[in-house]
């Protein structure tokens, strides 16, 4: 995992090296100060040469100024490095999520994902901000200060050192406890986000059922659990901080007492004593720093693990190695012995065989839950067939790139998803570089021109999140306009008008009929009246395509279709 983490430093190798070098210089300057002070006190003070002493003091100050400058550079560039790495990771995770398949989103909560891509990344960023170079400097000053302390008075240095193993054991102990706490905390935050996301997007249902109290209670549970976890984490952090504080202060007092004794016995000069006290402070401060790294580290590591997990989730559906980008298709479709199961081996579709000629409109009919939508979802490869194959113009769709395949297929569904934004943006989603002219043309074809003209801001009217400010019919028209712009040779209409009232349905049906002219079209509609004009009707059952023919043929044969038809019209 360490290697994977450091891979993110690669593009910033030089920044890292420069930062690192400055950090080393800053650390060396810090170590130089006590030594210089030692010389000033022992060599210069007894001479009483005030000019020289003044100059030396200026020199000492200069050391600090210089070290301050280097510290600035290190802090700034360290953070710059952190920000860059964080933003690379953010981009990488977003890019990856765009490619994940329907199956992934079927099985993962939106809130969890959002949490991973925001909170977790920030905590990983913390490591990158205060990461390896800080740790390195801390260790380096620790070792350097100890070496200098040894050279001044080895007995006292060793006595001071005795406390270190305790501090290290303490740190390891607490870091493990904290790692567990942070992993739990991440999980809680993710659950939390999922709950909020779900609640807010379903708030209209919540209020319609007057279930606010129920939601409030469920939220309170999450909230309390999160509070407890956080409390536990902070308790561990507080223990860690206070115990190491007491130990370190103990060391300082110990050094003070022993040092004084050595000075009185004249085995140490006063200058050496001063230098030793300063060095022992420098020696202990990295421990504080290492401690704070130990506090941020488990958090970042927990986040990084989850981040890696997300990145290592492969898309179920991806381009094959030799996939070709197909510029244009005629639109002949063929399903050959298609089998499909969502989870495990429970087959939903078996032996689906049918073909659709270019420009032909076929309708899929069957019981609700019978797999009509699923059949359509296999065509743009939202899911891949378990066995068999689907071809367009005789070419297996798995031999085309996903991008080019999906460019040739348009889907109009019952529940239209619109993006938060303007009417213009939503229509233009069908063709991102559409001109004003093209957008109006599409709007006219979808019969929504008048409606747009009546809106206060015309095309620039905001439609609210998921288009809440539009009626069902308006939303559907918008999605049809989007499809006119996309202009795909193959069209799927999945219960496109089922959610609408009769009158609106009739109007939209007209737009849909116009849309399907010249395109190979698969229609699913549960109101049979809307599909009676289809070139061919297929009745889908568990065993495959049970019967097919025109409306009249199927009625005449007296099979499933005629029974369904009777049920609706008697
Ligand atoms: P239809 O469109 O004919 O009403 P669907 O194709 O939507 O039927 O669904 C067929 C069956 O597959 C249903 O039993 C449904 O529960 C199941 N199903 C649909 N979508 C999924 C999914 N994403 N994951 C698992 N099962 C699903
Ligand atoms: Mg369906």
Could you name the key traits of this structure?
about 10% strand; alpha/beta; elongated; binds adenosine-5'-diphosphate; about 575 residues; four-stranded antiparallel β-sheet; 10 strands; Rossmann fold; binds magnesium ion; six-stranded mixed β-sheet; ABC transporter transmembrane region fold; about 65% helix
Description:
It is a single chain. With 570 residues, the chain is of the alpha/beta class. The chain has 20 helices and ten strands. The strands form two sheets. It has a six-stranded mixed sheet, sandwiched between helices. It has a four-stranded antiparallel sheet with strand order 2-1-4-5, with no helix packed on it. Strand 7, helix 18 and strand 8 form a beta-alpha-beta unit. Helix 8 runs antiparallel to helix 10 (212-264) and helix 17 (472-486) packs parallel to helix 18. It is elongated. The mean pLDDT is 88. Bound molecules: adenosine-5'-diphosphate and magnesium ion. The site of magnesium ion has 4 residues, from helix 12.
Query: What overall form do the CA principal axes indicate?
Result: elongated
CATH architecture of the largest domain: Up-down Bundle
Q: Please give the radius of gyration in angstroms.
A: 35 Å
Mean of pLDDT? 88
Membrane topology: Multi-pass membrane protein
InterPro entries: AAA+_ATPase, ABC1_TM_dom, ABC1_TM_sf, ABC_transporter-like_ATP-bd, ABC_transporter-like_CS, P-loop_NTPase, Type_1_exporter
Subcellular location: Cell membrane
Domain ABC transmembrane type-1: 17-299
């Amino acid at each position: 995992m360490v290697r994977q983490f450091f891979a993110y430093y690669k593009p910033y190798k030089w920044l890292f090296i420069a930062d690192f070098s400055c950090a080393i210089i800053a650390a060396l300057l810090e170590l130089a100060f006590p030594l210089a002070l030692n010389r000033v006190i022992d060599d210069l003070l007894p001479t009483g040469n005030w000019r020289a002493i003044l100059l030396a003091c200026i020199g000492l100050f200069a050391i600090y100024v210089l070290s301050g400058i280097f510290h600035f550079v290190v802090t700034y560039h360290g953070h710059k490095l952190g920000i860059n790495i964080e933003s690379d990771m953010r981009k990488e995770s977003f890019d990856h999520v765009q490619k994940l398949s329907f199956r992934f989103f079927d099985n993962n909560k939106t809130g969890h994902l959002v949490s991973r891509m925001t909170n977790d990344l920030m905590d990983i960023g913390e490591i990158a901000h205060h990461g390896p170079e800080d740790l390195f400097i801390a260790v380096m000053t620790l070792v350097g200060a100890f070496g200098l302390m040894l050279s001044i008075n080895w007995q006292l240095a060793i006595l001071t050192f005795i406390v270190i193993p305790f501090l290290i054991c303490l740190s390891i102990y607490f870091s493990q406890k904290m790692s567990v706490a942070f992993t739990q905390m991440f999980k809680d935050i993710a659950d939390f986000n999922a709950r909020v996301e779900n609640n807010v997007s379903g708030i209209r249902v919540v209020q319609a059922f007057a279930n606010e109290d129920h939601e409030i209670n469920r939220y309170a549970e999450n909230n309390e659990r999160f509070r407890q976890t956080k409390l536990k984490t902070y308790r561990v952090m507080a223990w860690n901080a206070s115990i190491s504080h007491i130990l370190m202060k103990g060391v300082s007092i110990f050094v003070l007492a022993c040092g004084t004794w050595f000075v009185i016995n004249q085995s140490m000069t006063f200058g050496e004593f001063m230098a030793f006290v300063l060095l022992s402070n420098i020696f202990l401060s990295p421990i504080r720093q290492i401690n704070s790294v130990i506090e941020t580290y488990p958090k970042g590591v927990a986040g990084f693990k989850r981040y890696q997990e997300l990145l290592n989730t492969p898309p179920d559906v991806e381009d094959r190695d030799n996939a070709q980008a197909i510029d244009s298709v005629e639109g002949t479709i063929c399903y050959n012995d298609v089998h499909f199961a969502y989870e495990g081996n429970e087959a939903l579709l078996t032996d689906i065989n049918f073909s659709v000629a270019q420009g032909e409109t076929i309708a899929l009919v069957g019981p609700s839950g019978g797999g009509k939508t699923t059949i359509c979802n296999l065509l743009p490869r939202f899911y891949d067939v378990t066995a068999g194959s689907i071809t367009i113009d005789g070419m297996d769709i798995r031999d085309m790139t996903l991008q080019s395949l999906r460019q040739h297929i348009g889907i109009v569904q019952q529940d239209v998803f619109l993006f938060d934004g303007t009417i213009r943006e939503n229509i233009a989603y069908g063709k991102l570089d559409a001109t004003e002219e093209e957008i109006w043309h599409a709007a006219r074809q979808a019969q929504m021109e008048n409606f747009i003209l009546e809106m206060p801001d015309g095309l620039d009217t905001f439609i609210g999140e998921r288009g809440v400010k539009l009626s069902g019919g308006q939303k559907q028209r918008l999605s049809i306009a989007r499809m006119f712009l996309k202009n795909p040779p193959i069209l799927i209409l999945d219960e496109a008008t089922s959610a609408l009232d009769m009158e609106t349905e009739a109007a939209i049906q007209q737009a849909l009929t116009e849309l399907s002219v010249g395109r190979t079209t698969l229609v699913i509609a549960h109101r049979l009246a809307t599909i009676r004009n289809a070139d061919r009707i297929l009745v889908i059952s568990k065993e495959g395509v049970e019967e097919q023919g025109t409306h009249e043929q199927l009625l005449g044969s007296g099979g499933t279709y005629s029974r369904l038809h009777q049920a609706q019209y008697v």
